[in-house]
Amino acid sequence: MSLRSVPRRLGPRALRRPSTCPNASQATHRVMPKWQTCRNVASTPTAEKVLFPGALNSEFTNTLEFLRPSQNKAISTFRILDQYGQVLDKERGLDTTDEEALELYKHMVCLNIMDLIMFEAQRQGRLSFYMVSTGEEGISVGSASALNPKDTVFCQYREAGVFMQRGFTLDQFMAQLFSNVDDFGHGRNMPVHYGSHELNIRTVSSTLATQLPHAAGAAYALKLQNQQNPDVEPRIAVTYFGEGAASEGDFHAALNIAATRQAPCIFICRNNGYAISTPTSDQYRGDGIASRGAGYGMDTIRVDGNDIFAVRTATKEARRLALTDGGRPVLIEMMAYRVGHHSTSDDSYAYRQKVEVEDWKRRDNPITRLRKWLESRDLWNEDNERETRSQLRKDVLAAFDRGEKKKKPKIRHAFDDVWEKITAEQRSHIEELKDILTRYPKEYDISQYEGGLDSLEELLEKKK
């Protein structure tokens, strides 16, 4: 007789009603959150709803009615300042000081100036690639200012403002853009792929949306650390992405695991209207990206990305929610029009009219809106603007000049940090490269690399 066919007798313990399901007997020592609790009874004569495991708290209805998103009101967009820089709710306030507001403004202006200079530098052939943040400065600078410096951040590629707000210097920007000896990545990444262990910002990856599951995993690890170290200030994970990245499978996987594991993670979407040349009308039919957060059971809000105060307020509250009841994920959809081209490899006027871009640039953007607020409080004027922009431009150009003149990283870094000890295959590659560089000095100018050929010899000697 097969073991599967042996009848099992149910003892008295097996008939006891579990307090939670499923696997209630295994959950003796932990309290299940309310959203996971359910009854083990299918129904009662007077029940108005059944707690189906897959859809808790769904009420019965005898009306045949399909949900039609097109007939529902769109998710509202939170803002504090209108486009004229006026506070809409005087009672709420701005939760900032005049000094802090001035610092935020200068960071956005500095980022804008750096973008203009580096974009032109790429057009001159002085670096290979660049991406601007024009029109989206308020999202990166504003959100970063509302986070704890110890929170770990996973950026996409348009978050230079996050780095700047956290203390990434102009020299460090230039080191990465020019891949010089001071580049933290030793010249292994293409431009705008910044990273800083000191500032708790993970290195940017070219692959679209891969930072999202990384952030979800990091948030779950931080949740465990927060539980195991109650005396240490709790941390969260934060990740940024565009609405185009939300079309990737990694987006859905990340939100789902963060929601089911209740990981303290803030997902910040920059919905700027275009995924390279693809407008949002061709990307999705639902109500933006915020509607997806609700679908995954996450606290969600849509925010006016041109309003840096709204960005800061929403991010602060999202961080508080992320640490509530042991942790939970939060999705913020930041709305801002992408004024610049997608990158230096893109000509956006091939798929949108220039008048559309100029209209957005003139009508409303985060820098102009904050400036109007500062001027209304007599904290800023035209003289301040002219002097500040002149000085910031000098600072950026000085860092540009220093970064461009420095040598490239040692050639050996092309082989470093792969294996603890050099392999036989690596050794053959190093020796072959050294031989080629030695035999063809006119074709390969290695004088621009720190250490020249000696760095390869050092690597071979060190790893023996």
UniProtKB/TrEMBL annotation:
GO biological process: branched-chain amino acid catabolic process
Enzyme class: oxidoreductase
GO cellular component, one term: mitochondrial matrix
Cofactor: thiamine diphosphate
Main location: mitochondrion
Subcellular location: Mitochondrion matrix
Keywords assigned by UniProt, alphabetized: Metal-binding, Mitochondrion, Oxidoreductase, Potassium, Thiamine pyrophosphate, Transit peptide
CDD domains: TPP_E1_PDC_ADC_BCADC (cd02000)
Similarity annotation: Belongs to the BCKDHA family.
Name of the protein in its database record: 2-oxoisovalerate dehydrogenase subunit alpha
Species: Paraphaeosphaeria minitans
